[in-house]
Structure formats: C-alpha cells, structure tokens
Amino acid sequence: MFERLRYLTAGESHGEALACIIDGIPAKLSLSAEDINGDLARRQKGHGRGGRMKIESDRARILSGVRWGKTLGSPITLLIENRDWVNWQDVMGPERDIRGRELRVKSQESREEPQDPKLMARNSKLQAVTRPRPGHADLAGALKYGHKDIRNVLERSSARETAARVAAGAVARKLLSEFNIRIMSYVTGIGGIRQRTEHGIQSKDLKTLLSLFKKAEASPVRCPDENIGRKIINKINTAMKKGDTLGGVFEVVATGVPAGLGSFSQWDRRLNAKLACSLMSIQAIKGVEIGSGFEMSTKFGSEVMDEIYYRAQGPGTQVAGGFYRNTNNAGGIEGGMSNGMPIVLRAAMKPIPTLRTPLSSVDIVTKKPFQAAYERSDVCAVPAASVIGEAVIALAIADSFLEKFGGDSIDEIKRNYNGYLKQINRF
Question: Are 80 and 17 in contact (CB under 8 A)?
C-alpha cells in the first residue's frame, strides 16, 4: 500500500534495542537525532502510564543515511536502546543464557521456585510462559507459529514496538514540515468521558487548531478541554484503585495537505484506505473514522455534504484557486483523495488487557484453567497512542506526498510541489 516510503521495525520489548530502517526519504533534508527524540519523549508521557516508562528514556541514534546533518537519499537506520535490557539478557539474548541453561517448557503452575526473591524473579523470567492473557496476541500467536513459550509472541507483539514507529514518524514529519504540513493530535475522551463535539471537524482555521494542540500538550491526558481532562484523570485514578484499565478516543488532524494526494483509480491508492490502515495497525486500536464518520450515517445527505463555494480573492479561501467550504464533515478526503481541507481522523483504543483484576484463561500445556497473572503495565495509554497516531499518519501522508511530487532531493520535490500549486491555483 505504501509506494514511495518504506519502513520496517525490528526488536523485542525486552531485547537489546529497537531498530527501524526507512527507505525513500529524499536527499538534503535537514535531520538530527533531536528531531526524533522530542516525539519519543512525548510518547512516554501521560497520566496512567506504567512502570516501564520510569525505566526507559527513549533516545534515537542515527546509524546511517545522514551525513553532517543532511539526509543522503539512502536508507536511514535508527536505533533505540532498551535500558531494561540489562535485567533481561539471560532471557532474551540470541544465545543460550550465560549459565548454559535452556528454557524448559512446562506448566507455570508446576514450578518449584527457590525462596530467594532475586533468584525467584530471575528463574520466573527463565521459565517458559505457558499462560495466555486474554486480549493479547498470546494464544493466537502461539497457535500460528507453534510456540510452546508464549514469550516468543508477547515480546514482539508488545506496544513497545511503537517507539520505533514514532521515531520513523518523526522523520516523515520533518519532511512534511518543509511543505508547511502539520500533524497534531489530542484526546477527545477516555473511559466514556468525552466532549460533545470533535475539535477537528468544528475548527476551520489553523490558528484554532494550533491553540487546541498547545492545550493538549500541556495536559497530563492530552485533552485540550481542562474540565473534561480533570474528569478523565479522576476516572483513571479510580481504575488504578480497582486494578482495572481504560480505553478511549483520540483525534489526529493534518493541516496544509494539498488537494490531490491519493487517487480514486485503484482501491489501494485511496488515501483514506492508507490512513485507516495505518491507524488500525497500532496495538489496541479497534475503530477508525474519518471526518464525521459514524455520525454521518445517522443524518440526511443534505445535512452532511460539504458544499463548495468560490471566491476569487479574500480571506476564507481554504482549498485552492478560490474554492472553499464552510464545513468539513468529509474530514478532508473525498473519493479517496485529499480535498485541501484539514484531514481529520479519529481512533478508538480498547482498554489495555493486562489487568490486576484476574481474568480467566487456560494453560497451553496442562490445559487447566487459571486466573491470568498481572505483569507491569499501563492503566491507560490513550494519550501515548495519540502521539503514535501522529507518527503513523505522518508516514502515510509522506508516502502519498512523495508519490505525487516525488524526486530524489528536497530541491527537486519543491520544484514539483510549487509547480503543482501554481497549476491548481490557476484552475
């Protein structure tokens, strides 16, 4: 589905590092590690995050594709070291652990643990994980790949992987910023506490959207509405006390996107398909809508279509060549293409399935029922998910942008882009 910008991530949650290779970034783009580290830090914040965020302090190293602060046009390699690796080398190393032991596949309930707490903790990690957790990739992954140790599944399926995608997204965001394309996000609701209107749909100008984004950045739950934010914090605190978790909804808005990205000509070139796929690829995301989305299905067509107007000159022109609209129910996409209005997407995240409140499951070895054990986890990660949402949307829009205006250097792309703007402004 991606045509010009390709990226792959690698690494396990408790492995030595996460890595990402990005291919397709043009030459002569200014790029430094600090352009990436800011977004990595934003991903780690949010009221309701778990203990892992107290251990990690994510920072990216650029291993290839950049020289003297400028991209070369060759693949860019990014590395994010896991600080928690020091506690997991015996378990997650590519070789057998340092004492030459092998992990033994046996039921968790039949283990005889030593009494020393440190040895208990270490040996617990060394034992095969045989108890799948409801709501995770554990059982389906074990069945698919034939693993009798579920750790072979959970280490890669973990949302820790998204740190690498946020790093890649920061590179894409840097590219898009050269063309005044901004991507921002905010939380619109958590645990059923939700504002009545959606920001991106109601806001028609960049100034208002930037103000909302600034408020979200200052909020512990990334909610621009202070009153709703306080209620959300209280709800998260209640979930903490109960040993439960919460999901929610966040909104991603892209501004400055020119009309014409994507295509109506083939299903896999439709911009809305690429954007929805990108959001759905984030762990725990269960629903995506564009613009007014599901709300549009409850109204008459005359109530939701974004009527087109024309004004040769003057304020209010929002699309190109004098064409403009007073509403944005389509969320900036019509017929699989950007239409010049802000692109507005919304994603629903399910509650995190790792709970202190036990859930029923079955041991894959003994086939006996058990109550799922709790491992260190977040209570709510919706604020972090919104930052991840920005990253994957930046990557998707950057790919469509390069498909439309592609060149081997920033200078060449700018010539193509400026020529296109002149064309549509004369339309």
Answer: yes
Helix pair angle (162-177, 382-405), 10° resolution: 50
| Residue-range domain boundaries for the chain | 6-83+160-353+377-425
Q: Encode pLDDT of 197-230 as tens digits.
A: 666 777 768 888 999 999 999 999 999 999 999 9
Cβ(360)–Cβ(132) below 8 Å: no
Does this model's pTM top 0.70? My answer is: yes
Phi first, then psi: what are they for 262, rounded to 5°? 85, -170
Q: How many beta carbons lie within 10 A of that of residue 424, not counting itself?
A: 15
CATH 3.90.180.10 fits 6-83+160-353+377-425, yes or no: no
The answer to whether the beta carbons of residues 136 and 154 sit under 8 Å apart is yes
Element (H, E) at 286: strand 285-290
What pLDDT, in 10s, does the model give residues 271-293? 999 999 999 999 999 999 999 99
Nearest Cα neighbor of 184 from 211, 164, 162, 219 is 211
- Three-state DSSP at 337 gives strand
> Using CA atoms, how far apart are residues 290 and 296, in angstroms rounded to an integer?
10
